[in-house]
Write a structure and sequence with these properties.
With 392 residues, this protein is mainly α. The chain is built from 13 helices and three strands; from the N terminus they run ααααβββααααααααα. The longest helix is centred in the C-terminal third of the chain and has 34 residues. The radius of gyration is 21 Å and the shape is globular.
Amino acid sequence: MQRKGLFKYLHGDMGIWLIVMLLSIFSILAVYSSTGSLAYRFQSGNTAYYVLKHGLILIFGWFLMYGAHLIPYNYYSRISQLLFVVSVPLLLFTMLTGSSINGASRWMTVPIINISFQTSDLAKLALVMYLARQLSKNKNKVNEPKTFFMIFGSAILVCLLIFPENFSTSALLMTTSVALMFFGGVNMRYMMGIAGTGIVAILMLLTVFYTVPEEALPGRFATWKNRIETFGGNGDSDANYQAEQAKIAVASGGFFGKLPGNSTQRNYLPHPYSDYIYAIIIEEYGMLGGMLILMFYLWFFYRGIRIARDCEGTFGCYLVLGICLILTLQALINMAVAVDLFPVTGQPLPLLSMGGTSLWFTALGIGIVLSVSVAVENQGKGRNIDESTVNS
């Protein structure tokens, strides 16, 4: 079907473009509504400040996504090598000397322009792309011990560098990496070994939590322990306060909500524009709006599966599966936290939470997915992308 108007400039899967457009609209509305208290505290009541800032970040994200979707996806194979090599020292540098915000040293400040970003956001995208390349390049020998440990070792290295300051991102990235290895045909014997190692690591972590005095716990271990205890109803009052206010927001929304701009819990939740933006959406748009947002992310994942299924090259297939899986899991975790089905993690809601560089990396990831979908469309027209560069 012939695309008309602005849509003729948007190539690839129109379902994903539509999802991004709808989430962007919801994002503008939700951020404007949830930043009122923030504006009165820090911007002398200028309620337009934060939504304009978020809108500019969102627009730049769209430019990044549009540019990424114009690049043939096989080029991302070589780009993944560069990003992986760059992200590892950046993670190490951040862990040792990173800027501390909200009690965690996850941020690196770029000199001169003075912009802070979480290096883990770059590392997430870099590792997924790099694993897609390695699984595709070594698809016939992925179960040889040397190849397997090289692939698995790459994931372990990145996740260990993220772990000390950002447990949730490390766990999310490791889960996605293991899923990618499963999709890539890694032997079940190895997969069972990974599962066993993960169980042992969790048990060791819990042992440390409950045998070492809280004041002696290293780094952010005390924070993680408190979040688990809070989820079980035994945490400190501040942590319980967040969860209680989020539950009030969800419960007061009913089925149709209080309508846009009528949230009351935005004045009580510590982070209604980021960690708990989903609770504000349910309060204002009701259970109906909450289910709609959930369906958008599930629809996005479904579109990704279709693109991966139809892609002739294994690199494109793994690339789409990895990016769609990590973004969907992140969204589900954020929503589960907001409705008290999961301990607090600090994961933003992709494309919806008030933006920063994390929104830009999300936009780049979606642009790469769209690049693969462009190639799938071209396959149907008899124009295939040469994936030989993946193996070079």
